[in-house]
């Protein structure tokens, strides 16, 4: 990796402060959630167009969200002068090509997870972003729940202390009907299974809280549905700062829960059990180790003010970054760190061996983890 490609950067966006950012959403699946978030931020965003190869679906969404333009071709959308940002909600195997096309057209890109199935592609995207003068924001909306914001505030204030242990459970349910969508459950089109398509948000959160991983041992299996990609996984990690972590994932849990628990020198933080993005929202429990630590924690939380959550929270911060030139709330460097961890997870699962990070360009899976 060329470190300079991922150095924190600010750059002019071509959007004047105070102007509404004209955004087009490509893909009407998860794209509906994006549209809801943009609509909740009318002072920052104007939804200029909806693009989907299914004209009927695009037209239905345009009517529901009062969007003036329906487009069925990304080529046509990229040629439009009336769009500043193109938000990519297409199937995963199209993400790299679509981001590159959007940047080449001089537009900013937002893209759903996962961005790619390889570190090589991540580095290509970083090079293209740097050349274009435009910006790419990956979607990691789970970061912005109020509970997670509180934990980050306590860490930033120096209240949490040294991290010891992180444990994450992602126990969701996916039945056969979920895989009726043709691109799901296939390596070539979904790029991975439960680790890539479902637990990826929690891998991002784990490293946001505990920092980068140093070593990974993983096992994956296909146990729940007759698909190509894994639907169960267990990962043991040693982080670069010495902390330990474990991640358990299944798509075969009748009771759907997500759980995060982080042990620090001065406190324990534990999430609620809600699945999906509500897991990072309230309520979270924070238990201090001593009365002194409890007093410090109470003072720190008394000054805490939660910003907007979920997609709305990420887009609000994105809009402000574009209009001020500040660093994006989620960057390609953040996404690359998660793609690197996934590369190590798949390498470990296939070799039955621990994998050390960072993963270099000489690693067999640098160019792709696809079988």
Structure, described:
The protein has 371 residues and is α/β, with parallel strands linked by helices. It has two domains: 10-138, NAD(P)-binding Rossmann-like Domain (Rossmann fold), CATH 3.40.50; 142-312, Dihydrodipicolinate Reductase, domain 2, CATH 3.30.360. The two termini are 23 Å apart. Helix 4 links the parallel strand 4 and strand 5 (108-111). The mean pLDDT is 96. The strands form two sheets. The protein has an eight-stranded mixed β-sheet with strand order 13-12-11-7-10-9-8-14. Strands 3-2-1-4-5-6 form a six-stranded parallel β-sheet, with helices on both faces. The chain has helices spanning 31-39, 55-64, 74-78, 95-104, 119-132, 146-156, 187-190, 194-197, 200-210, 291-302, 310-324, 332-351; strands at 21-26, 45-51, 70-71, 85-88, 108-111, 136-138, 163-173, 213-221, 232-239, 244-250, 252-264, 267-270, 285-288, 355-356. The chain is built from twelve helices and 14 strands. The longest helix is centred in the last third of the chain and has 20 residues, at 332-351.
SSE blueprint:
Elements: E1 21-26, H1 31-39, E2 45-51, H2 55-64, E3 70-71, H3 74-78, E4 85-88, H4 95-104, E5 108-111, H5 119-132, E6 136-138, H6 146-156, E7 163-173, H7 187-190, H8 194-197, H9 200-210, E8 213-221, E9 232-239, E10 244-250, E11 252-264, E12 267-270, E13 285-288, H10 291-302, H11 310-324, H12 332-351, E14 355-356
Parallel strand pairs: 1-2, 1-4, 2-3, 4-5, 5-6, 7-10
Antiparallel strand pairs: 7-11, 8-9, 8-14, 9-10, 11-12, 12-13
Helix pairs in contact: 1-11, 4-5, 5-12, 9-12
